[in-house]
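Dear Dr. H.,

I hope your travels went smoothly. While you were away I took the liberty of generating a structure for the chain from your last submission, since the lab meeting agenda had it listed for discussion. I wanted you to have the full record in hand beforehand rather than looking at slides cold. The sequence, exactly as received, is reproduced here:
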Amino acid sequence: MVARSGIRSAALRSPAQIPVRPRPGTPSAGTLTGRIPLADPRPVAPGGFPAKAFASEVVPFSVVAFREGHDRIGVHVRLTAPDGTKTLHRLAPLGDGSDRWLADIALDAQGDWRYRFEAFADDFATWAHAASVKIAAGVDVAVMAALGRDLFARAASDARRPAAERAMLTRTAALLDSADAATALSVAVDPDLAAIFAARPLMSLSAETAKQTIVVERTRAGIGAWYEFFPRSEGATRKKDGTITSGTFRTAAQSLDRVAAMGFDVLYLPPIHPIGRTHRKGPNNTLVAGPGDPGSPWAIGAAEGGHDAVHPDLGTLADFRSFVRKARSAGVEVALDLALQASPDHPWVAAHPEWFTTLPDGTIAYAENPPKKYQDIYPLNFDDDPVGLRDEVLRVVRHWIAQGVKIFRVDNPHTKPLQFWEWLIAQVTATDPDAIFLAEAFTRPAPLRGLAAAGFQQSYTYFTWRNTKRELETFLTGLATETADYLRPNLFVNTPDILTEYLQFGGRAAYKVRAAIAATAAPVYGVYAGYELFENIARPGSEENIDNEKYEYKLRDFAAAESSGASLAPYLRHLNEIRRAHPALRQLRNLRVHWSDDDGILVYSKHLDGRFTENGEPDTILVVANVDPHSVRETTVHLDTRIWGVEPGETFEVVDLVTGVGWTWSDHNYVRLDAFDEPVHILHVRGRS
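The corresponding predicted structure, in token form, is as follows:
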């Protein structure tokens, strides 16, 4: 739960003892355990990699700390910013029996931060607790007063304290020298004295953890609304004979205002390189391509060039640079696909056959993802010439960085060695720290998490396949707690390859529900073009769109759809406006799941303490979603209102940011959500009634 101070709990994992650095001369020198045990520090990433955050992210720093007996302890975290500035932050106990201490801290500067936890015997807190209990009971009054006198005298002798404070402590020591029970008790429970010692504790018996690193990346690494389109479809035209003329970077640039108007700030382009002709795929992944079929952009490489070239139908490299500049002027950053594979016509095939796998019959193995086969694509082999291949990929990435691209969406990174990605991302970010890599890691949990820990700034997730209330509760809680120290989810609602049954058969309500959850549950989410047009027809027997844009041009009239009311664009625009207006939605770790009596009603909140907002006011958002797109649901939702500082039973005001309707709520509330009208409440908590 969240206390009024803004200190909040974190999901607990099994504590593990960690090395401490005992201070010289203490009895604990030479042991793993310090005089005050410290364990399970967070944030932490697996495999010895550093934890990650983004600039402006509020990071929960926590550690397990305890000592024998009843004496009180205190815990600090000492932070060293990238510029060398050191700050000390006091942690508060969660009070849930876990012995975990926590402080939320906003990291505002990009770069490597160092931190360590320090625990100490809190002599004032120990005395104040014992004195308040004993003196109130009439036990050892004189002894407790004498102990207090000595304690205040010791504190007053500390020359580092302000002069006025030292004078007050000296007076208090003198007062306790001849105090009666009532006076001594008043000193023990004095909140002003407690505040002094909270700010400048009287410490003894200390221990500290080893220093650890958390890498803070630029804000775009953690916050962004992504939109994907194929530039060849933007501005493509159909001629009288039925053939289609490809769109270009220049015609695609005319779509930038549309993308920006919907509130998206990252535009992801599938591969823009020359496309191979050998084994080129036709519509719907057929094995025979007609003369006008453009082929899959992921079949990279032809006589015109490879990964460092642009498809001549799209324009020139200069045209691409102009496109990037125009996007930036519109407030949109371009992300480019990095697909490490080649068509049979790629220049690499002839120049570097060692970069591919040759079969016993002398042919090169093509890509497979059973039951899918990609005869037009050769996967790379990273083992025969690992240095030569990795150097070439690094050259390609730096080539596109020179064209103005800083964000790369990496195709199927789990099919390449993890060691390679660790090396590549480290090499790139050493010279270009603003570079961002998104892992399209639709794979098992271990490699997905391994890629994130090894350096990927963002990851696709299993979100598209988590649709029920129970699935989403478990999934979203895991994102916010179990992996948030190193894995940033990018919640794409669809892709050219993914059209789930939920969208195929859920109608418009399903499209609203998925967009609303993606936009509010994570600071980074994405939409592939056509989503706003409710494109929901799948190729029979598959989970992808019929007439997949991977293999053909897609001519869409977005303006006509919106003017006729047949577009989700206004809803997406509104979601992105809500995201920009509410800083709580620009954090990941603050998501907390609540309860409802209906198995189709999902409830979660995001709260951000006023310490971390620009206007100093707390920001709280409640999301209540009917995840059954075919029904009207009525139920009671149950909230842990203490998260935003409201005691159970107290009332507060909420306003639905979707409809503008307001209600007075408490911790138990009736809701009715009609999937055919507005299936999701996005409620802004506006304070107590």
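Two observations you may find useful: The radius of gyration is 30 Å. Residues 1-28 have pLDDT under 50 and may be disordered.

With kind regards,
E. W.
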